[in-house]
Please model this.
Amino acid sequence: MMKRLLTLLCLSLSISMYAQTVELNKKAKSITVNNAVLRYKIYPGNKWSIYDEKGNEIIYFKVVEPPLSEHLDSEYFVLNFLNEGVKISSNDFRPIFTIFKRDKSVKKLVSWLVRENVLAENSDIDYRKLQNFASKYDMKLDPTQWQ
Model:
């Protein structure tokens, strides 16, 4: 019994040592991933940008609403990794959106990227992991499909 308890304790400690923390600072418009600080800027109309520690824009997010009103469920988002040239589009908002709280939505997006190992500990984007992420979640939506 004691051996199992000790094993469980060691396992939980090893998992928690490798867990990355994501903290939101709404006042400073920043998100801290471990010790790296990412800044973000929210624009009108469900758009935002995420900047690295050097001030370079690395991720641009926007919600696309096709003009045809008969397609009420046709809203989708585009996640653009600017330096890598990768765009991901999806109509599954569950991993990122928090109703009426865009700051928390930005945090959820960053947390999702950390969980999927797209964002490394130093806040660099791992291109290989990004490719895996894109192959899992990109629905390759195109606004012309509703015309």
